Amino acid sequence: MAVVCKENIAIIYEDNHLIAVNKVSGAIVQGDKTGDMPLSEMVKSYLKERYQKPGDVYLGVTHRLDRPVSGVVLFAKTSKALTRTNQLFRDRHMTKVYWAVVRERPPQSEGTLVHWLVKNEQKNITKAFSEQRENALHAELSYRVLMEKDGYFLLEVSPITGRPHQIRVQLASMGCPIVGDNKYGYPRANRDRSICLHARSLGFVHPVKQASILLVAELPRDDFWAKFSSCF
């Protein structure tokens, strides 16, 4: 069970080296040009207050989720943990699982998608191509349909690579844009500007303790996600 602290962050896991939280849609992981309070600063505030730290709190960002995406975000509490965790991500020794809701039925109940992605930094949008091209990044993921409910399909997605907007653009390229993601072809936005993509779990060997860790984030608490969460 996640612990919710007064900074309104749900803590999934914490030890002397790492802390993981369940990010809500709309939060940013690190500061950007919007000037909005990032999740990293909220976690720092929590650590400072809980442990009565008089000075600055160290917190390393190991990975990010897009603003409209919810789910597991892992931070490092020491520089050693950050270096080792970053290496785990680079070596693809992190098992990442996402849940996505789409309106269109996928062509197959499970499969693998391979594309080459090019990101337009100015427009903050990524394009997927079926063939390799200059300056494009190889992207690969696997998916399977977990269930259908009221005409919507819940997919479990396992990205093999980690590219900007990868799951969003690859599912859209399959003809299955994520619910609420009008940037990638869904016809209307969700009221809260979220998209129905959730970083469900993160599995890895602890970079210091060398123990197997599986972090699981509860689904967002709203009426739409409730139709799926009641089945798990």
Give an overview of the whole structure.
By secondary structure, the protein is an alpha+beta fold. It has one domain: Pseudouridine synthase (2-Layer Sandwich). Helix content is 17%, strand content 35%. It has 4 helices and 12 strands; from the N terminus they run E-E-E-H-E-E-H-E-E-E-E-E-H-E-E-H. Strands 1, 2, 3, 4, 5, 6, 7, 8, 9, 10, 11 and 12 form a 12-stranded mixed β-sheet that branches. The mean pLDDT is 93.
Describe the secondary-structure layout:
Elements: E1 3-4, E2 10-14, E3 18-23, H1 39-50, E4 60-61, E5 70-76, H2 79-90, E6 95-102, E7 110-120, E8 125-129, E9 137-149, E10 152-159, H3 166-173, E11 197-205, E12 212-216, H4 223-229
Parallel strand pairs: 5-11
Antiparallel strand pairs: 1-2, 2-3, 3-5, 4-5, 6-10, 6-11, 7-8, 7-9, 9-10, 11-12
Main attributes?
alpha+beta; Pseudouridine synthase; 4 helices; 12 strands; 232 residues
